[in-house]
Amino acid sequence: MAAGQLAVSLDGLRAIADATFRLTFSFTKSDSKLNSEIRAVANEIQDIAGLLHQLSLLASGLEENEDQISNVNAAPPPLISCHRSLEQLGGSLRRRTNRSNDDGCEQKRCADVKWPFTRAWTTDLLDELSEHKKTISEGLNAKSIEDLLQVLSKGKSVATIRDEDWVSEAFTDFLQSSGYFQGIYMVLNTFLRVREESYIMIQDRYKNLSTQSRFFQEEEFENWLGKGGSHFLFTAPLGGGRTAFTGALARETFRRRRARTVVVPIYSELLGTCRWASDTGLLGTIVAQIARQNQGAFKVLRRYCRDLSGKPRWATNGATMAGLEVVLWQMSTFFEHVLVIVDCSRARKPDTMPTIASLIKTSKQSAPNFSLAVVYQDLETIREPLGDLVTHWDITPSVATLQAFAATEVERRVRTGALRFERGAMKDAAIRKLSVGGDHM
């Protein structure tokens, strides 16, 4: 990254900090019990704005060599994280202010508008801003652009997933950033092979499919969560609970993931019986889902999208497997760990297995922090391309587990109105039979 490029990035971030400070400070004029916290946030942002201004001047004065370019063509992760924090805060304040203006409160806006966050959220934001200020303060002691980038690149960032049930995982703060709203979907939709509402809908349904598996208590699962290069093939015959296991695997991975980890579940049923029209469709969906989690990763994909301009547009708008793999490995540098779950439980034929095998082989050298899990039918045809690249797990549940799952499903469907019995006693008898077995009826 050139010194001038870094200085421009810092100066733009300082402008965001100034605007956010002005919006935040206006909230202290309202009659609120949170005045002290709001003022503390405003002061913290003002301190950051001053530090960013000094840092931008420092960057512009250090080593004015335009030929000196790093292989990372995006802002350092701490600056990206700081940008996201300020943009999220400013966007929330603007939305609250706009709603008040729409209600006819123009003359008494400051008196009527309330701080839109809880005390706990404000405290967490203060802690986060303090960490950013500490990092930026360390950067001011840099003697060269190399030193400055080294200080600012110590940490890596990923958007926080706030929904504990991971239903809203696709809606990250990065997506809601007003500065990127118009351009981001044009880039993502070039590669993403799924509609937003379909993705959320299927995750909402999968979270209700509870299942028990000893895999989640094994050391292998902890290795999957904490170590790169851990790859799995999960198989079960028809009716063996693959769909329920996929939901549980995604849910447990999101819930127990480590810090600075991106989780990407890919579901086979979103485009019918086979989710991907081509191998580039599969890989394009993976990179698009990763890009939406981090601004640096998104810039890598946007640059590749621009490189495709003017080229023949078939498959994924002219994208190639080789090009998408390069993009994927570049994106992985913005995270400590990349976890991809490929659900092929409803695919009719294993056309994607050679592609998955290629990804696993290449990742050993290109992205050691990359891990992949595949859920598929127990077919010999998929074991040949994967071979020893993956650890195989048979997830076929016991009869007792299947009966308990069926009883839970009956209860859930009756509760939601999807299943009806003429008499309540029939429902109770069906659930009891599934729970304790037919001999106890």
Automatic annotation (TrEMBL):
It comes from the Eukaryota. This is Fungal N-terminal domain-containing protein. It comes from Glomerella acutata.
